[in-house]
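Quick one:
INPUT:
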């Protein structure tokens, strides 16, 4: 994916590989709306570029890294410092396409918790307080990411996805939190299925996109 980024200098390409520049789609301060950390105020950093390509993705504009400016990571860290956020969420796209060591080290030096949202399909870089693994069918997670995940969040579009979620639950650590989350466009149909399943299988929890219900950006 890095090689697909167009019209950059050799110097910028080196900085991209070092993680000192990243294609940033957007940054914003808001409320984490889903998963284990629901309800926490957080600063979100959305990195552009994704090779997973889920048909129901609600941020498809993040897929092409060429649509998003290659940005100095030091500038991003400076933007974080303008807000009282104690939690930082790195999301995408698929952020693990890139080297995230530099970004997470700079953020950690500011005394904040750093969370990752990933499909797990690429090698794990960065230092994390919380890793949310959300596996996708097009590109399966790597074994190393299963082992490090604090949270497994499976998006449920149909009944078969619940069975598929169990295959991933077998691969994460015993302390990993398990979540089933209805895909937003199909939530009326699948939410009752998830409720019944969680009641019968209480190792699972339900995650809802509460930010959408509350119309929080």
């Amino acid at each position: 994916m890095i090689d697909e980024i167009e019209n950059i200098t050799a110097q910028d390409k080196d900085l991209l590989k070092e993680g000192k520049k990243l294609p940033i789609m957007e940054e914003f301060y808001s409320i984490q709306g889903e998963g284990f950390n629901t309800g926490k105020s957080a600063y979100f950093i959305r990195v552009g570029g994704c090779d997973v390509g889920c048909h129901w993705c609600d941020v498809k504009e993040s897929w092409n890294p060429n649509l998003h400016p290659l940005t100095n990571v030091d500038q991003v860290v400076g933007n974080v410092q303008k807000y009282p956020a104690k939690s930082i969420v790195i999301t995408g796209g698929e952020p693990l396409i890139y080297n995230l060591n530099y970004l997470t080290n700079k953020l950690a030096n500011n005394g904040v918790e750093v969370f990752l949202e990933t499909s797990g399909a690429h090698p794990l870089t960065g230092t994390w307080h919380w890793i949310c693994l959300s596996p996708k069918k097009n590109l399966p997670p790597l074994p190393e990411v299963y082992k490090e995940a604090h949270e497994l969040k499976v998006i449920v579009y149909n009944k078969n996805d619940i069975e598929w979620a169990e295959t991933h639950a077998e691969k994460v650590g015993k302390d990993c939190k398990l979540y089933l989350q209805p895909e937003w466009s199909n939530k009326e149909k699948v939410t009752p299925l998830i409720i019944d399943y969680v009641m019968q299988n209480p190792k699972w929890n339900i995650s809802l996109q509460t930010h959408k219900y509350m119309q929080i950006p």
